[in-house]
Amino acid sequence: MRTDETKVLVGTTVPPYVFGRDARYWSGWLRPLSAQVDYLAVLERDGRGLAPFAPLLKQLEAAGGKFLTFAAPEGQTEYTTANRLAGICHGRNAVQAYAMAHYYDWILFCDADVTPHPDQVQRLRALFHPVCAAHVPTYCLSGPPAIGYPEAWDVQSHMSTAGAVFVHRDVFSRVTWRWDTAKGMSDDPCYHADALALGYPTYVRHDTVATHFPERIPPLEERGHDRRIRTPSEADQP
């Protein structure tokens, strides 16, 4: 991994159900960063098309970002804990494909409801490690110290939430986002395990904090979102 590579893509994937309530559910990832970056949103559209995403698209345009879309699964009537991972993984893999096609060196995966530290890119690049992350206190993740870093950085080796992970192309060109129902593994632990199998543990800077909204996360079904997946004929329904 070269240490002078700086072309960075900040990528997120967004479903339609997060709109209509607090903007922090979908806008946190667009916080201005002190590093030069590009922004990409991958939108999971239902029968309403781009209409639910209008406020995000306005902010994304102001940031000079781009977007891609994909269709919600046919035959599903609502988003649930059981089916949401398919869209999440599809969206993140689309971010990786875009990054490879446009020769990005790094991807900062930032969930739409996570606000990154303003210096997050520089602080994570300073680790010179291909899979690293900011600390997101919501998830209460920790591990043993990673060797070779200043004590004040508090760098630990452990799985990170995908909401704040910084990945070099040595990894994102080889590891895809997936989940494993049989093993009880969602997207985050699968990506961590697959990168680790290639010899890349995840290093997390606990002195660099990214903030999740809300701080505590109940199951999807308890978050108060309108989780209906609309067909084209239902697009105008309230």
Helices and strands in order:
Layout: E1 8-14, H1 24-27, E2 38-45, H2 54-62, E3 66-71, H3 84-101, E4 106-110, E5 114-115, H4 120-125, E6 131-135, E7 155-157, E8 164-168, H5 169-172, H6 187-197, E9 203-209, E10 211-212
Parallel strand pairs: 1-2, 1-4, 2-3, 6-9
Antiparallel strand pairs: 4-8, 5-10, 6-8, 7-9
CATH architecture of the domain at 8-130 and 163-173 and 210-234: Alpha-Beta Complex
Uncertain stretches of 5 or more adjacent residues:
none
Structure summary, number of beta strands: 10
Strand order of the largest sheet: 3-2-1-4-8-6-9-7
CATH topology of the domain at 8-130 and 163-173 and 210-234: Spore Coat Polysaccharide Biosynthesis Protein SpsA, Chain A
Order of helices and strands: EHEHEHEEHEEEHHEE
What share of the residues does DSSP label as strand, in percent? 15-25%
Mean pLDDT, all residues:
94
Structure description:
By secondary structure, the chain is α/β, with parallel strands linked by helices. It has a domain at about 10-130 and about 165-175 and about 210-235: Spore Coat Polysaccharide Biosynthesis Protein SpsA, Chain A. The protein contains six helices and ten strands, in the order βαβαβαββαβββααββ. The strands form two sheets. It has an eight-stranded mixed sheet with strand order 3-2-1-4-8-6-9-7, with helices on both faces. The longest helix is centred in the middle third of the chain and has 18 residues, at about 85-100.
